[in-house]
Amino acid sequence: MKCNIVTIPGDGIGPEIVREACLVLEKTGEVFGHEFHFQPILMGGCSIDRYGVPLTDEALETAKKADAVLLGAVGGKVGNSKWYDVAPNLRPEAGLLAIRKGLGLFANLRPAYLYQELAKACPLKPELIGDGFDMIIVRELTGGLYFGERHTDVVDGVETAVDTLTYNEKEIRRIAVKAFEIAMKRRKKVTSVDKANVLDSSRLWRKVTEEVAKDYPEVELEHMLVDNCAMQLVMNPRQFDVILTENMFGDILSDEASMITGSIGMLSSASLNETKFGLYEPSHGSAPDIAGQDIANPIATILSAAMMLSYSFDLDREAQAIRDAVQKVLTEGYRTADIYQEGFTKVGCGKMGELIRDRIVK
Ligand code: IPM
Ligand code: MG
């Protein structure tokens, strides 16, 4: 199989982790007989520095023509970078939002599970995690507060900022269908998270989700308020299988879910449209503090590449080979700094990538 992959190294640790993921894909291609072609484009702060905008039309068009996109991370230090104090549409993050919207990537899948090897890094008490948890957050990605009208004005002499949260039934239905389809392949439980005790958009969310549930009688649907969900995630994470939620709640809950796995450096994500096309990226950010020091954890990006193989290219065996290689490296005791504990072997970003590559077998 020949696959054309557009890569977006981005900012901060982005370039180093994307490099490792590409090398892992190349090795997987060698072992299984596929050709992966990589074409890099600029997005985020690096694009601002070069072109004055976080994503050029040309870069977006290039991404549209690819079979899939692999992204590192974009952005600098929040509140303290040359890209922060500028108009919202000129910030690095605006590139991310523009590519999500431009490619129609409405479904963001963020798996969060606990590797037994990292159980000690989980901040929860052992009795709360038992033999581990395995959930996936299905986050709506092209609607809600992120894309509603926003402006800042002076109203009656007082500076006033407005962000609007809008969802229509179509947007809710398609993401709900995605969540139920995923649940059918898992433990058949969907927890739909909203704030229906306050928000109209959440009431519509509940109504549409219940309609969709009728087409999936085998799947159990429960509704949970977002504040309660934040609490349940740290009290009893094992109750969750598929968490379905809107854009902003999903942003927040996915950071929380990833942290209880021990490190946000381990978690992959996929952003999909209605077709097989997808953008794959680690759930973590650009970590500008540790950029360029060869200490970042490339595993989340490597696992995102594995998600690409199965979701966009139906290469499930190949994806499994990557996941097995990651598992092996952890079992053998190799750790990057973020997941390091005494008694293990500390390795850098490049070495971690190499160890994983060397363990990819048919
Ligand atoms: C994420 C990030 C982005 C988001 C930021 C960088 C705009 O936090 O992918 O979770 O909020 O969606
Ligand atoms: Mg986030």
How would you describe this protein?
The chain is of the alpha/beta class. The chain folds into 2 domains: 217 residues, Isopropylmalate Dehydrogenase (3-Layer(aba) Sandwich), CATH 3.40.718; 138 residues, Isopropylmalate Dehydrogenase (3-Layer(aba) Sandwich), CATH 3.40.718. The strands form 3 sheets. A 10-stranded mixed beta sheet has the order 2-1-3-12-11-4-5-10-8-9, sandwiched between helices. Strands 6-7 form a two-stranded antiparallel ribbon. Strands 13-14 form a two-stranded parallel sheet. Helix 1 packs parallel to helix 12, helix 10 runs antiparallel to helix 11 and helix 11 crosses helix 12. The model has no long low-confidence stretch (mean pLDDT 95). 3-isopropylmalic acid (IPM) binds next to helix 4. Its EC number is 1.1.1.85. It is found in: Cytoplasm. This is 3-isopropylmalate dehydrogenase.
Defining key terms:
single chain, 362 residues, alpha/beta, Isopropylmalate Dehydrogenase, 2 domains, ten-stranded mixed beta sheet, two-stranded antiparallel ribbon, 12 helices, 14 strands, globular, binds 3-isopropylmalic acid, binds magnesium ion, magnesium, metal-binding, manganese, Isopropylmalate_DH
